[in-house]
Amino acid sequence: MKYMFPSVNEQMDIIKRGVKEIIPEDEMVKKIEKSIEFNKPLVIKEGFDPTAPDLHIGHMVTIRKLKQFQDLGHTVVFLIGDFTGLVGDPSGRSETRKMMSREEMGKNVQTYKEQIYKVLDSHKTIIRFNSEWLGNLTIYDFMELSSKYTVARMLERDDFKKRYDNKKDISIIEFLYCLLQGYDSVALKADVELGGTDQKFNLLTARNIQKRYGIDPQVIITMPLLLGTDGVEKMSKSLGNYIGINEPPSEIYGKILSITDDLIIPYFIFATEVPDVEIKKFEKDLKDDNVNPRDLKRRLAREVVSLYHEKSEAIKAEEAFDKIFVKKQTPTEINEFKVDNNEKIWIVRLLTLTNMCKSSSEARRLIKQGGVSIDGNKINDPEIDIIINKEIILKVGKRKFLKIVPK
C-alpha cells in the first residue's frame, strides 16, 4: 500500500503545535524521514489506565494530538492499561494507591472505548490491552525486567524522592509501574509515545527499557496539563474541577462559562480546533478594555460542546444558559421525579433520593451555603420537611433543576 505522507516540515509543524517537549526532536525528524522513505507509518502509542469511568477534556489534549498523527497517516495505538491499572500510576502521588479490582476496571474499559471515538477514527485506531503481554510474563521475565533499572534511578524521581525523604512508604509494586509501562513500548515497538508532563519520568524510562531490549527507542512527546475549572489544580474528576466529554451539552457549556479569564487562551489552544491565527487575535482582544471576556468564553463554550456533541446542541446549550442566567428564567425541559401525593419528605432525604446530591453531608452543606431552592425560594434549614402536594421546581447549585411531581 502506498501512503501519501506530507513532507517532513509539514508534519513537524503540526506535531509541534501545543507540545511541551519532543525528546529528542532530531530523532523525531529522522523517524519521519525514514517513514516517508520506506513508506511505513510510525507506531504512535498512548496508554490510559481505566481508573475512572469518564474521560474529560484534559485527557483530550493528548488524544487530539493522537488524532493529528492519525490524520498524517501514522498508526495510532490506544493502549488500555488493564494490567498496569491494577498497580496504579504513582505519578504525583504522596502515598501508595489502593489497587483497583478487575470488575471496576472492566466497566471503565467499555466507556473508554465509546468515548475515544468522539475524537479518533474508529476504523484507523488500534486498541490494545497490556494484559495481553504483561499477564503472560513469568517470574523469570519479571526478574529480567527488574534488572534493567536501578533503585538509584528510581529515587531520582521527584515524587519518590519526596516520599523517601519524608519516610513515607513506597511499595515495590510502585517501582514496577514504570518498568511495566516501559515493557508496553517494547511489546508494541512504539516509535513515539505521548503523555502529559507528569508522565515524563515514565516515558523516559520506557525509552531506556527499549534500548535494553535492543529496540530502537521511542521519541517522547509531552503535552501541558490542562488546569481544571478552579484554575489551580490539573483537571481531575477526584478534585471535582473537570469537564467530562460525556456530560450534557448544557453542563459543559455552563462549566466553560465559569472558568477564570486567565484560562480562556489555554483552553482555546488545548481544548479546541480553533486556528492559531484566531487565538492570537483573542489574546490581543483580552488586553482591550472594550472587549468583554464573557464573549470569548461563549465562543469557547460553543467550540468545546461542538467537539463532543452536535453543533446544534451547542446552540441549544447557549440558549438554555441565557434563559437561566441572563433572563433568570426556569429551563423549558426539566427531568421529572414522582412522589406520592401529600408525602412529607425531609429536605436532605429529598436531595439524595433524587440524586441531586451524592450524600447527606453534601446536601446539608449546599443548603447551608444557600445553594438549594424550591420554586425560587432558598432553603436555609437542613432539618425541614417538605410536603409534596403540588408540582414544585427543585434547584441545586447554579445549573441543576428537577421537577417534583405528586402522583
Structure described in brief:
By secondary structure, the chain is an alpha/beta fold. 45% of the residues lie in helices and 14% in strands. The strands form three sheets. It has a six-stranded mixed β-sheet, sandwiched between helices.
Task: Describe the protein in words.
The chain is of the alpha/beta class and 407 residues long. The chain folds into three domains: 8-223, 3-Layer(aba) Sandwich (Rossmann fold); 249-326, Tyrosyl-Transfer RNA Synthetase, CATH 1.10.240.10; 336-406, RNA-binding S4 domain (Structural Genomics Hypothetical 15.5 Kd Protein In mrcA-pckA Intergenic Region, Chain A, Roll), CATH 3.10.290. The protein contains 18 helices and 13 strands. The chain has helices at 8-16, 25-37, 60-71, 84-87, 102-116, 131-134, 139-146, 151-154, 158-165, 172-188, 200-212, 249-257, 264-271, 276-286, 293-308, 311-326, 347-353, 360-368, and strands spanning 21-23, 43-48, 75-80, 125-129, 192-196, 219-223, 336-339, 343-346, 372-374, 377-378, 385-388, 392-396, 400-406. The strands form three sheets. Strands 1-6-5-2-3-4 form a six-stranded mixed β-sheet, with helices on both faces. Helix 3 links the parallel strand 2 and strand 3 (75-80). Helix 10 crosses helix 11 (200-212), helix 12 packs antiparallel against helix 15 (293-308) and helix 13 packs parallel to helix 15 (293-308). The chain is globular, with a radius of gyration of 25 Å.
